[in-house]
Amino acid sequence: MAVHYCGLCRRTSFSGRRHLYSAAHRRRLQEALARLQEEVAAARAAAAAAAAEEDDEEGDGGVAVRPYDPAEHDRRVWCLCCGRGVRRDGRRGGLALPQAGLLQHLAGAEHRRETARFWRENRAEAALRERFLVPAEEYERFARALERALAAHQRREEERIRQMAAGIREAERRQRETVQAALQLQMEPELCVGPSV
Ligand SMILES: [Zn+2]
Ligand SMILES: [Zn+2]
Q: Region Disordered: start and end of each range (predicted)?
């Protein structure tokens, strides 16, 4: 009797690899692939939006970098093909890079290899496989847009700090003027009184 353990269904089958053709397994496979495909589609849409602004040198790269919030950005996506959780967002210092982690994974050699293996083992539909991969040039365009977005963010931060410093200097100047004016008011009556005594 051929025994086969199916990681997807999490059960041992005594019909061996014929289990892979069973209706229950096919249904689970389709459900799991649909879930992953949704995540892949969202990541690729983010990459496409970023790349759309690629030619705009003055643009911010179309990537929304924002402060890193563990509750939102520590999220992992289960990669069915590699059998492990993948961090969806990237991180640079205190900033979150939405979808950067997942895109890097989907464009990587490990994922490409494991996806081929998974497809072979599960007899998944060959035509669908490309939907689970990110071509290298697509990822490179995204990575370039990401760098531009980070540079634009840095410029905005520096400008904000420069304006804040200018605001503080201006407030200090006004305070000095107010103090000087008050001192002068105190001194003036004495000056007036002086000669008549
Ligand atoms: Zn199964
Ligand atoms: Zn993977």
A: 48-67
In sequence order, the 6+-apart residues with CB closer than 8 A to the CB of 89 are 72, 73, 75, 96, 97, 98, 99, 100, 101, 102
Q: What is the pTM of this model?
A: 0.78
Q: Could you list the residue range(s) of the whole structural domain that residue 120 is in?
A: 39-157
Report pLDDT digits (tens) over 100-148. Answer: 999 999 999 999 999 999 999 888 889 999 999 999 999 999 999 999 9
Contacts of 167 (CB under 8 A, 6+ apart): none
CA of 8 to the centre of ligand 2 (A): 15
> What per-residue confidence (pLDDT) applies to 66?
86
Number of domains forming the structure of the chain: 1
Tell me if 175 is assigned to some domain.
Answer: no
User: Could you tell me the distance, in angstroms and rounded to a whole number, from the CA of residue 109 to the centre of ligand 1?
Assistant: 26
Ligand nearest to the CA of 103: 2
Cα 141 to ligand 1 centre (Å): 37
